[in-house]
Amino acid sequence: MVLVAVFGVALLIAVLLSGLAARTVLSTSLLFLAGGALVSDGFLGLIHITPDR
Fold first, then answer.
1. d(CA 48, CA 33)
2. At what angle are helices 2-22 and 28-39 packed, to 10 degrees?
3. Distance linking the first and last C-alpha atoms of the chain
4. Distance in angstroms (rounded) separating the CA atoms of residues 9 and 47
5. 3 state SS for 9-50
6. What residue spans define the domains of the chain?
7. Backbone angles phi and psi of 34, in degrees to 5
């Protein structure tokens, strides 16, 4: 359930920032990559993905 909530929040943020991202060198793909790194085990630890999942 946490994975779905995190994806929904990331999608909402990407939509809200898409106009700004279009005018800069940033892309929404980069925003999703940064968001994934932020919520993974490396920083916040909200999502734990293992090979057996």
1. 16
2. 150
3. 14
4. 14
5. HHHHHHHHHHHHHHCCCCCHHHHHHHHHHHHCCCCCCCCCCC
6. 2-39
7. -65, -40
Q: 29 to each of 11, 33, 35, 49, 50, how far by Cα in Å? A: 11, 6, 10, 20, 23
Residue 30: the pLDDT is 77
Are 40 and 47 in contact by the 8 Å Cβ rule? The answer is yes
- pTM, whole model, 2 decimals? 0.60
Task: Read off φ and ψ for residue 22, nearest 5 degrees.
Answer: -70, -25
- In whole angstroms, give the CA distance from residue 39 to residue 50: 15
pLDDT band at 45 (very low <50, low <70, confident <90, very high): confident
